Amino acid sequence: MGRLQLSDLPRLARRYPLVFIGGGLLTLLIILALAAPLYAGDPVNINPFKRLQPPSAEMWFGSDNLGRDVFARTIFGARISLMVGLLSAACAALAGLLIGVIAGYSRSFDNVVMRIMDGLMSIPTILLAIALISLTGPGIGILIVAIAIPETPAVARLVRSVVLGVRQRPYVEAALCGGARLPKVLWRHILPSTVPALMVQGATVCASAILTEAGLSFLGVGVPPEIPSWGNMIASSRLYLAIAPLTIFAPGICLAVTVLAVNLLGDGLRDMFDPRSKRRR
Amino acid sequence: MNGPLLKVENLTKHYPLGSGIFKKSIPVIRAVEDVSFSVEAGETLCIVGESGCGKSTVARLLMRLVEPTAGRVLIDGTDIAGLKKDALHAWRRRMQMVFQDPYSSLNPRLTAAQIITEPVENFERLGRNQRQALAADLLRKVGMSPEMTHRLPSELSGGQRQRLGIARALSLNPSLIIADEAVSALDVSVQAQILNLLLDLQQQMGIAFVFISHDLGVVEHIGHRVAVMYLGRIVELAPCEALFAKPVHPYTEALLAAAPVPDPTRIRLQVPVDGEMPSPINPPNGCAFHPRCPLAVERCRIEVPPLVPMADGRIVACHVRAPATELSAPPIANRALAQIDSIS
Amino acid sequence: MLMRESAKDDVLLDVRDLETHFYGEESVTRALGGISFQVKKGETLGVVGESGCGKSVTALSILRLLPKLTARTVGGEVRFRGRDLLELSDREMRKVRGDQIAMIFQDPMTSLNPVYTVGHQIAEAVQIHTKASHPVAAAKAEEMLRLVRIADPERRVNNYPHEMSGGMRQRAMIAMALACSPELLIADEPTTALDVTIQAQILRLIVDLKERTGTAVMFITHDLGVVAETCQRVIVMYAGRIVEQASVIDLFARPAHPYTQGLMRSVPDRRRGRQRRLPEIPGIVPSLREPIVGCSFAPRCPFAIDICRDKTPVLRDVGSSHTAACWRAEEVMGA
Fold first, then answer.
1. What residues of chain A lie within 8 A of the CB of C69, using their CB?
2. For position A22, which CATH number holds?
């Protein structure tokens, strides 16, 4: 591969279009969400005189049943969705990496922990989240934990299989022959090989976390109702679909686009790291 | 120096097949069975045999990549087979390994310089300049240009990669290099380059080699002494010239006869040996070679032949060709070792 | 040209100017740079060369088994019994493969299906090509296993490939290849993955079967020893071209291309006695992605002079049915 330079970008874009489309879209969404206070209005201000307004110069997507600015709410909702998605993915990836690496190296740990992981995998995400949230009360932190837990086993399994494969490689044995100690072998020779799998799996987790968050919020057990989130918006507006369709379509389309962007990125990364899957396409 | 550089005594490795929670007795793969030999400083001992004969397991046992079931591996008189991990660390400097596959034995993410200086950095801290100097020096030793330091393995040819593997092994200035099929994956013209490099290094630095190979042509070219393995055991160990001039064990004979010779005028009359090597899970009783052996007699089916010293300084395990004379022969291993000492 | 016409009757396969390219992300690899050779009826032709020289690509190009997306035969013809295989429809080509031309590979697992028994697979091949009834085909499968000297064929027909050893699998693959009595057998490194004692058995088997069935064999290998033991005529390939072509006796007695000579010398050979250093071929094989000016071997060649670096040599006669692509073949033969 060699060292990458800025001048290589157009070439890479042609070679891995999915990564660029997905990644670009996602980056754009993140920038829009982070910069929301600069250009979008107040997402929580209630104005009873302007309920269910059609789009106007003042409120681009109109207003909802409480007279709140749908555009501002959609933009601020992106913050919640992206944060939940990215943080859940990061938590699941980190936990999975740790468990997977240890399981790949220690037989006894492997036998015990991977059985527990099997058990975790069989718990439906939504049920676990509802159970956890009913214990602690709604909050974004607990939501992220609740989404990350059932996703962790899949990551752990993947990392474990990569580690099991790589630790048999002659270059790992060569490192041991050269007197390298285990932490160094792990850090230098084994962990880098797990990165591709982690990134691909992370994208999958991220996409499903965004959907799960929206689902939970829709059910009223996710993000607290005072915080604007796409799930909350769809839930509270579903009665007004006929009068103010944008109150549902705006967050709905944003949700779809975000998940699509993450999935495209994931697929693109997979193709990039595994040239075989690309050729088969 | 007194005594051999490397002395291997009764090395044995059995791999259990599966875990035995629910089974009373676990079947084992008898990969290496009671192997003893020694290597002098600056000498090349070759181990030949066909796949599954245990020769690669011997290499891995010597490097402690796998733990032996029994036996000792002595370097300058110290048994490293019994050492704890920390004590072993220091001994790693004495003994290095070159691997078969020049592709999978180099980390594809590291540059040439990182690969070849890594072993040294496991023992001492290197500054940036020191590392550059060391890398350039090592590359020069293996006949590569110092400009290659920033190359990734994927940018190098098979022969160049194997040179990197050798440079990595050289970085710690070992007294012994174990080369496990180090030239088997290379094209003949490149193979000759690498063999010449190994010979030069031996001459310049006095490195001893344990050279493991299935290729008799290569072995004859590079070896001082040769051990022939069959199904986990050494069946013949002899000085190189003697072995190739006149093989004694029928398996050695078959192996020599089977190697294709680049001479179209030579006509082969018969296949040298029929059948295939039996499974090491369930080896035949007696001599492991008897089911394929044209000379086999009743005794071969019952009794494992001991390694018997011959007049010309070789040891052979065959009831027919090398019958043990004394009835009260000492245990196999001791005799073999005594013989090894006298050869070397 | 004249010789070619007169010998037309016993020419089975006539390859002319075959050119195959591989297409990478942003480069073209000229794997075969226009090669021409013939296989006569019933002969064994050896194709030798080191990895990347194009010997396997030659076989795959003839059988049109190249990966469709990344490789294409861009020129030349492959005349098999007078028909150009490159012009056949896919369906006609499938009939030729197996029926008239069979191929065996280095790794038998690539052509044996792991989920069917060996007997079933051989019988199926027989049924497809001869329309024999099932019992006849099954009997034929057993007979074929016996022919390739697999012990206990009655029992072995019911074995799955994984239940066999490497040597036995290779025998089974040969049995399958020969089941439809093809006129040409292409063997691509069939013994490279095997141990020497097993290799000797398989080589013997191939030679015996060839004599019995009269099948022509194209034997692809990197091992000069294997060539010497099995082949009658040899072509030597380097960097996608044929550099020398001769009878096996001539080739070993008087190699006319410096590459052939270097190859022979760099093999450790017991008959030359022990030397401390092997004669090596310096340097590395050129990349086929960039166009090569002059002789592709010139940078590594001890005989190279100015003309070698400027003009690409073509195959020319250097003896009776002995051709070499070298400007200085006479000097090379004398050296």
1. 279
2. 1.10.3720.10
